[in-house]
Amino acid sequence: MKVALVNNHTAESIKLAEEFLSKIKAKGIQLDDENPNLVVTIGGDGTLLSAFHKYQHLLSTVRFVGVHTGHLGFYTDWRDYEIDDLIESLEHDRGESVSYPLLDIRIDYRDSDQSDRLIALNEAVLKKVDGTMVCEVFVKDELFETFRGDGLCVATPTGSTGISKSLGGAVIHPRTEAIQLTEMASVNNRVYRTLSSPMIIAKDEWIVVKPIEEHGLIVTVDHLTFRDKHIEKLVYRVANEKVHFARYRHMHFWNRVENAFIGIANKR
């Protein structure tokens, strides 16, 4: 096994990372930051997102496992005081994993033949900070609506518990290979109309968004932000790739949702 470690820069995470590295070295587990087959993150969901994008070129061969040093996250299964149990699991690793769907984003630019392809673990957001964003929304190749509002969010099933949920989107189980489009403060009156409801798009379909005005747009992909791009259109679909998490002790998705938003188990 070749292990890479990614941690945030809080004092607690740095201390735990040093302890983890010392203990896996003593166990003879190989550390490989360039070509790992297992990536351990110490911090929170943001740390795991950073690790995901750092190693997304290895998605077909790498698995992730997260240790959280704060509150329980959606991607972090281990607590900081369980580091010895995690290392024992690494020693007895059988290669088991659980896989989640991802979001594929293609960005085409005006007056350019080049495109960017990005992958999101959580969501991608297109928004305009100053003024109303106007864009045409297509499902596959058919015009569905002309959107006016603050922005649009397209989320994966696991990302459905983030920005999408705050916008009124559904929480989607990750075995459902789909993406979800939610609106941000859409304009709806007697003149302008949008669906004003989340849309769940099947794996064999895709969403195309064509901004009418290219200036002042911001694109975010998970924690990454892109500004001042002359965007002609964005194409969203379920990615061919998946993210794989080491299944040593992987929490059931609905238990994770309940723990994060309801907390009944903690009140018993």
UniProtKB/TrEMBL annotation:
Active site location: D45 (proton acceptor)
Gene Ontology BP term (one): NAD+ metabolic process
Listed Pfam families: NAD_kinase, NAD_kinase_C
GO molecular function, one term: metal ion binding
Essential cofactor(s): a divalent metal cation
A Gene Ontology term for the protein's cellular component: cytoplasm
Main location: cytoplasm
Catalytic activities: NAD(+) + ATP = ADP + NADP(+) + H(+)
Superkingdom, taxonomy of origin: Bacteria
Subcellular localization, as worded in the UniProt entry: Cytoplasm
Broad EC category: transferase
Binding-site positions, NAD(+): D45, G46, N122, E123, R148, D150, A185
Keywords, in A-Z order: ATP-binding, Cytoplasm, Kinase, NAD, NADP, Nucleotide-binding, Transferase
The protein's Enzyme Commission number: 2.7.1.23
SUPFAM superfamilies for this protein: NAD kinase/diacylglycerol kinase-like
InterPro entries on file: ATP-NAD_kinase_N (IPR017438), ATP-NAD_kinase_PpnK-typ_C (IPR017437), NAD/diacylglycerol_kinase_sf (IPR016064), NADK (IPR002504)
Recorded family membership: Belongs to the NAD kinase family.
Cited function: Involved in the regulation of the intracellular balance of NAD and NADP, and is a key enzyme in the biosynthesis of NADP. Catalyzes specifically the phosphorylation on 2'-hydroxyl of the adenosine moiety of NAD to yield NADP.
Entry protein name: NAD kinase
Natural source organism: Jeotgalibaca arthritidis
